Amino acid sequence: MKLKILGCSGGIGGSARTTSMLLGTNVLIDAGTGVGELSLTELSMVDHVFVTHAHLDHIACIPLLVDSAGYMRNKPLTVHATDETLDLLKQHIFNWKIWPDFTGIPDAQHPFMRYSAIRVGQTVELEKRGASITVLPANHVVPAVGFHVDSGEASLVFSGDTTTNDALWEAVNRIANLRYLIIETAFSNAEKEVAVRSKHFCPGTLAEELLKLKLNPEIYITHLKPGEVELIMQEIGECVRGFAPRMLQNGQVFEF
Hints:
By secondary structure, this protein is α/β, with parallel strands linked by helices. The chain has a single domain (2-255), classed as Ribonuclease Z/Hydroxyacylglutathione hydrolase-like (Metallo-beta-lactamase, Chain A).
């Protein structure tokens, strides 16, 4: 199984692209501005989008994706998210005011897009035999989840946007074949108060959380704020003990 990082920044500017990952050729995990890295043909091949939460940096390209490539497809794009996140998308994005409701375009019998509700603990089987995505708990300012991607041979966990979360580590520590952990750290230690209020990690709180991890995966840091990337990674190196987290990169590919 191959997962390509299309965007992993906490903002935009220059080469920064917000969160999106392409699993195989037809599954997106989040759909931030990184989706713009795909060609129109590649966009038309995406059948599923698994959404961690409804914040703009994680959903910005869903409306543009379905608008740009919907006519090229012979089945709806399926958006997988919790009931709470789907309600936010329906109320605030696909509402005929911000963007058309593509669950009824061109008509209700042949829509360009459909919704599929998921819940924490649920496992969705993927087309590749033995592969699956399991929904993990997250702790954010809006309803949010993370994802456990299992190829059948090895696993990757993406925390999504989160902060202190014992339930996440309880689930992660049960993944015997965990190879990679992608986890967010959005702010520097000097901005700890902002991180706590917005339910993100800073290096100090990340270090405290990683003490709960009983496994030894490769750890990659995502959602770094543009302009503070070097500082945050330096502070992570100073705070975290027992692990050597690395910065996630646009274009990086994980095979597992």
